[in-house]
What does this fold into?
Amino acid sequence: MQKQLVTLAASAMLSLTAVSAQAAILDDVKAKGYVQCGVTGGVPGFSAPDSNNVWTGIEVDFCRAMAAAIFNDADAVRYTSLTSQERFTALSSGEVDVLSRTTTWTMSRDTQLGISFVGTMFYDGQGFMVRKEDGIASALDLSGAAICIESGTTTELNAADYFAANKMEFNTVVFVDQDEVVKAYEDGRCDVYTTDSSALAAERSKFANPDDHIILPEIISKEPLGPVVRSGDSQWFNLARWTYFALLEAEELGVTSANVDEMLGSDNPAIKRLLGVEGDFGTPLGITKDWAYQIVKLVGNYAETYDRNVGPSTPIGLERGLNALWKDGGIQYAPPIR
Amino acid sequence: MTDIGFVRSDLVEARPAPVRTTGAIAWAQKNLFSTPLDTVLTILGLLFLAWIVPPLYGFFFGNAVGPNGTVEQCRMENAGACWAYISSEMEFFIYGFYDIPEQWRPNIVFALGALLLVPLLIPKAPFKKTNAVLFLAVYPIVSYFLLAGGVFGLREIPTEKWGGLLVTLILSVIGITLSFPLGVILALGRQSSMPIIKTVCVGFIELIRAVPLITILFMASIMLPLFMPQGMTVDKFLRAIVGVTLFTSAYVAEVVRGGLQAIPRGQYEAASALGLGYWKRMWFIILPQALKHVIPGIVNNFIALFKDTSLVYIVGMKDLLEAVKTKNDTALEWQSGNTATTGYIFAAMVFWVFCFGMSRYSIYMERRLNTGYKR
It folds into this structure.
């Protein structure tokens, strides 16, 4: 009995200090049976606990899509909640396999941190929110308006640039903490609140009367948010990247989680290739040929995950905008699967 | 000569005290209005109470939305605390992401802990030794396997899913049970005459005490992975436990050292004269006296540790406070003017209950052990 206990204790210690060899990430992931996904501490619509305390969000869906492609099981994901300081360390040390955590794709991050951005799950950008009663329709009308802003952020710099470029009077009310900024705007200490438009939408949904506030159409900065993997493993990088493309391709071809089984019988060669009816595009990625079928079946296509998490029918209520497919006027575009 | 007109055969019954010295009015006169300054202060105090109590009562009870209320009620113009939000999200506050069908496991751990801890805390309860062994040796192992699973047919629940009060309690219970012996050993080491042991202990204590807990947690979560071989990771939870424990043990060590120094030299010499070795001397003579002196200081550290566990949010763990904050930010269906405030009040109340409990228990322990020093 005592021996057993010792063995159990030893195995417990080992399971707490996981050692994974430097082998291919996909092999490690397959061996442990789940994808370790780095997410935020809770950003509504992107990664947040739902009412059943399960992670949901558009970024969570990306990890679920990867798990669906690898294991035919979208639930084979474990989530690590990461702060913005520790996220890149966690990724490069192997604590997480994929980082899907409102991370802006920038050149320095892509080239200097030993990490690779997979694509842009969500094109975000800095926007402005004003009260409807003020009758402001465009950011160009904001000259001299009091702007609530978080100090020391790129948000502040972007806004200063934008106002200078348009020769407008820049009048800020600066706070250190995001919550204070929102509170000040809500209390009427300033006329405008500016931050990334997704955050604007999320904050607006928390207001007592969300409909009294509008988000102006101008987007003044580029904040492409996307999943990230470690550099140096092209197989894993390709798997992540084509998971993202499969979500887009499925939407473009009109394949949804509801009709994917019907679509297996489609005559469209593009759909046949996507769903693995014709050709085998999975094996080179190290997975099965029906990988995209599993993604769509278990998670849905890009439009489904967008609408479910951040779309107009959710409390966040973001229009597709830039995130529409290229043929619908957006810039989401996937190379062909062939 | 015996012409005494009247002799009383029984005692005069005591008359009631003058009206002006008893009763509510007299008490008020004596305590509230005895001088003009007192009168002014009393009136100011009453005005303050009249100003603060009704709105507080209204917020917490009068206008509050009860546990069965709806979010629409919380959103009403003059609604008070939104207790419905707390009751609706209670599971997250207690268990974090722990799978709902498996929540009986933490419940058993809570119940077992209470069952073992309460008799340990009551001095008269029997079987102290068995109880202590069960609590200190068996209970942690049983709890770990029960919570983490993966054996005996229990589904595996990774530590990333643990959260809320569960994390706060695990961190503090483990932190307290480990940091106390570690602190005592460090304190003894610091007083040791062996140079290496002494240097190591002094170095450790001074290093840890000179660094904020946040820095230690940061080191554990951001720097440590960089030093480790590629691909090797240590569970975040374990890192946080180690960080919190080491931090508290350094403080406990200094408190205990204070107790050791309060023991007169004669006690050490007398113990040596009895022929006791070092450990026996410490265990039977010195430590029992020294620790008794420093109970308030030690408990102070434990209360600080309990509250400091909320700092683990900076390594991405969701303790009670962070769980509340997460829901405040993300439970959009519960948003209202008072939702976040109610969440924080709830967290504060839970922290208060535990800290106050510890504080009261320490006072009780002090009184009980205060033999021979009573003032």
Observations:
- Chain B touches chain A through 53 residues (CB under 8 Å).
- The two ends of chain B are 58 Å apart (CA to CA).
